[in-house]
Specification:
Layout lengths: L3 H7 L18 E3 L4 E3 L2 E3 L2 E4 L2 E3 L2 E3 L6 E4 L4 E3 L2 E8 L2 E3 L2 E9 L4 E3 L2 E3 L2 E3 L4 E3 L2 E3 L2 H4 L6 H7 L20
Parallel strand pairs: 1-4, 2-5, 3-6, 4-7, 5-8, 6-9, 7-9, 8-10, 9-11, 10-12, 11-13, 11-14, 12-15, 13-16
């Protein structure tokens, strides 16, 4: 009788807690606002960038990966993901095989390829825009050889099968 009300408030009944999974709206990887990364980034699941990244961003895995570029973020490099939500600055090509959302503060300077596109008032794309066909979805955006040429890296081409391989200096 006395104290029951207080006991109930101090010790509430237990509730079921479901952990957030990376497939729900939880962020699996976060690049913080004070971070600056240089290099290519491969991820699966959810990636949010609040800082600066210079390099290629590519999603791997089940085709449900999502990239979020926040308002204060800056990406300099190409992006290839199923779902991209851009509210910051991207200088480079963007390929979104499922959905591209450019939010109010989003800015993209480069070639854009998308399956579904949504641009909020204030969002900007400076460059060419192409809707991806079913056939285009099955091709990788850039062949490795083409990527290396663009970056100025040496391209190694194997000799034709019918020519003998050199055994040293001639």
């Amino acid at each position: 009788m006395f104290g029951n009300k207080r006991d109930k408030q101090e010790n509430p009944s237990p509730r079921a807690v479901t952990p957030a999974s990376s497939s729900s709206n939880g962020i699996g990887t976060l690049i913080g606002a004070s971070a600056r990364l240089v290099g290519d980034l491969f991820f699966a699941g959810q990636l949010r960038i609040d800082g600066r990244l210079e390099g290629t961003i590519r999603a791997e895995g089940d085709g449900e990966s999502r990239l979020v570029v926040s308002e204060q973020a800056e990406v300099v490099g190409d992006i290839e993901v199923p779902i991209a939500i851009i509210n910051g600055s991207v200088t480079g090509n963007v390929r979104a095989t499922k959905q591209l959302i450019v939010q109010e503060h989003g800015r993209i300077a480069g070639e854009v390829a998308y399956r579904s596109l949504e641009i909020a008032a204030g969002g900007r794309i400076q460059g060419s825009m192409n809707e991806l066909s079913e056939a285009a979805l099955n091709k990788p955006a850039l062949a490795v050889e083409d990527q290396n040429r663009r970056k100025g890296k040496p391209v190694v081409t194997p000799p034709p099968a019918d020519e003998p391989k050199s055994e040293g200096w001639n």
